């Protein structure tokens, strides 16, 4: 179950409101991403991944600054970007670890929620290759009640592809990695204050049983 339009709107409004009062550069970057909705952090991740030509999984300050500008995070001043980079560059080496940066950028989340997200991904990734594709979703995600499937406008494959695209940011390639799935649900989690509601939402969406 991807984030509903209403939940996404609530997340964007909440993030924009908090953004006006925060001075912490890391929190500012996090909120700037979340103000773009549940795919915000995942979108920034994709931008950085595209820039990582040598696949070193690290970013220097120039790359970091360019990625934030390319993604259109105008809320971040040059000073904010510099302070944010320095926060992540703990050893002062002039580069930051891409994966560590992403983990720290995600909104804090209790283990009970993390566990549900991991279980949902494992259920969808039927082949166990670390990617969710249309083939994986067949037999797991039921499209029979989708209005466009019911009226004959879309095939099962089209419904499943739209479901996958709702998790994607810009380059809708029909594949979702575990990292992208987690980044997406970190955004959704930030819009849901109640743990019990998040638990119910995930269990109902993915038919997760104890």
Radius of gyration: 18 Å
**Portion of residues within helices:** 55-70%
Structural class, please?
A: mainly alpha
Helix count from the secondary structure assignment: 12
Distance between the termini: 19 Å
How large a portion of the residues is in β-strands, by DSSP E? under 5%
Topology:
Elements: H1 5-19, H2 25-34, H3 40-51, E1 58-60, H4 61-70, H5 78-88, E2 95-97, H6 98-105, H7 111-124, E3 131-132, H8 134-137, H9 147-150, H10 156-165, E4 176-177, H11 178-190, H12 195-206
Antiparallel strand pairs: 1-2, 3-4
Helix pairs in contact: 1-2, 2-3, 2-5, 3-4, 3-11, 4-5, 7-11, 7-12
Summarize the structure.
By secondary structure, this protein is mostly helical. The protein contains 12 helices and 4 strands, in the order H-H-H-E-H-H-E-H-H-E-H-H-H-E-H-H. Strands 1-2 form a two-stranded antiparallel sheet. It has a two-stranded antiparallel sheet with strand order 3-4.
Question: Could you name the key traits of this structure?
Answer:
210 residues, mainly alpha, two-stranded antiparallel ribbon, 12 helices, 4 strands, 59% helix
Description:
This protein has helices at 5-19, 25-34, 40-51, 61-70, 78-88, 98-105, 111-124, 134-137, 147-150, 156-165, 178-190, 195-206, and strands spanning 58-60, 95-97, 131-132, 176-177. The chain is mostly helical. It has a two-stranded antiparallel ribbon with strand order 1-2. The protein has a two-stranded antiparallel ribbon with strand order 3-4. The longest helix has 15 residues, at 5-19.
């Amino acid at each position: 179950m991807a984030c509903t339009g209403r939940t996404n709107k609530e997340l964007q409004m909440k993030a924009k409101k908090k953004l006006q009062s925060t001075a912490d550069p890391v929190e500012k970057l996090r909120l700037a991403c979340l103000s773009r909705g549940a795919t915000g952090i995942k979108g920034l991740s994709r931008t950085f991944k595209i820039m990582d030509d040598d696949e070193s999984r690290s970013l220097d300050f120039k790359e970091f600054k360019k990625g934030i500008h390319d993604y259109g995070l105008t809320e971040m001043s040059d000073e904010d970007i510099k302070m944010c980079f320095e926060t992540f560059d703990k050893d002062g080496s002039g580069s930051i670890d891409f994966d560590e940066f992403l983990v720290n950028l995600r909104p804090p989340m209790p283990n009970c929620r993390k566990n549900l997200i991991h279980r949902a991904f494992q259920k969808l990734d039927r082949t166990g290759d670390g990617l969710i594709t249309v083939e994986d979703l067949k037999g797991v995600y039921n499209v029979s009640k989708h209005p466009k499937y019911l009226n004959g406008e879309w095939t099962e494959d089209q419904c499943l592809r739209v479901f996958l695209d709702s998790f994607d940011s810009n380059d809708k390639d029909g594949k979702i990695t575990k990292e992208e799935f987690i980044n997406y649900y970190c955004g959704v989690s930030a819009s849901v204050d109640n743990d019990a509601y998040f638990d119910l939402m995930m269990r109902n969406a993915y038919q997760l049983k104890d």
